[in-house]
Amino acid sequence: MADPRVAVVVMTHNRVDELLTTLARLSRLPEEPPIVVVDNGSDDGTAKAVRARFPAVELVALEANVGAAARNLGVARVDQPYVAFCDDDTWWDPGSLSRAADVFDADGRVGVVTGTIVVEPGGEEDPVVDELRHSPVPSPDGCPGPVLLSFLAGASMVRADAYRAAGGFEPRLQVGGEEALLAVDLAASGWLMVHIAEVVVHHLPSPTRDPHLRRRQGIRNALWFFWLRRPAGAALRRSSHLMATMARDRHSAAAVVAAVRGLPWVLRNRRVVPPDVEAGLRLLDEPQMHSRARQYVS
């Protein structure tokens, strides 16, 4: 049945073929969600193709690539209380939008629901799902699933009011671990982020992605995050570990240089998380530092 509680925001950039396939799948969902596509300045005919093939989809065609902040513009266009995110190479399983919305309805503490990610075409679970399932962060009584202190935007639904109040995604981060900053800001405001196994999102990794750019931005964003929100000792420990274990090449060097150049902005916006959130982050430090799913490689 159509579900009036949910909308879908899809972020895309120069992947017209993948996007059209994803929109076809989303358009067949039984929940019949309104779909907003935010095109990050594509020059491959994306906007024209979406208008021609999916006239019911609301298209926001940007002149420049604003990265993950494109999702903020999408959320601003919808009235539904819950918003599911997709990248142009991810899509939601039939019924999963409603299952996630049911979690929000049942527990007003929940700000983000992250589902189980199934990697296509093989249909196996993404390795990060095991980390979500066994999150060491303590769960309050009655919590509907394991509590997280970050989430995967392409496989998550947000409570729109909570998302807007937290400011959405930081434009400076572009794409690559951009969720960490927003996640701890949500947690600092008292919102829970949970993993719900029965909510399923499929991911068919695009062959057109730039892994070197994603790695550079991921390393830079991780270093920025540590110093934006962690106490000095934790920030130093995590930064030192990252720099000791990352590949020694020009892409890593460029990431560190970019991080250092952004230091004045980081210091101006530094706001250490509350002690309870930091306690949860400390529980995640060791698993994250040794996670196969979180290695910066390309």
Write up this protein.
Strand 2, helix 2 and strand 3 form a beta-alpha-beta unit. The protein is 42% helix and 18% strand. The chain is built from twelve helices and ten strands. It has 298 residues and is of the alpha/beta class. Helix 1 (16-27) runs parallel beside helix 2 (46-53), helix 8 (211-229) runs antiparallel to helix 9 and helix 8 packs parallel to helix 10. It is globular. The model has no long low-confidence stretch (mean pLDDT 96). The chain starts with 5 loop residues before the first strand and ends in a 9-residue tail after the last helix. It has two domains: 6-203, Spore Coat Polysaccharide Biosynthesis Protein SpsA, Chain A (Alpha-Beta Complex), CATH 3.90.550.10; 211-294, no CATH class.
Structural class given helices, strands, pairing?
A: alpha/beta
Q: Approximately how much helix is present in the residues?
A: 40-55%
According to CATH, the fold-level topology of the largest domain is: Spore Coat Polysaccharide Biosynthesis Protein SpsA, Chain A
**SSE arrangement, N to C:** EHEHEHEEHEEHEEHHEHHHHH
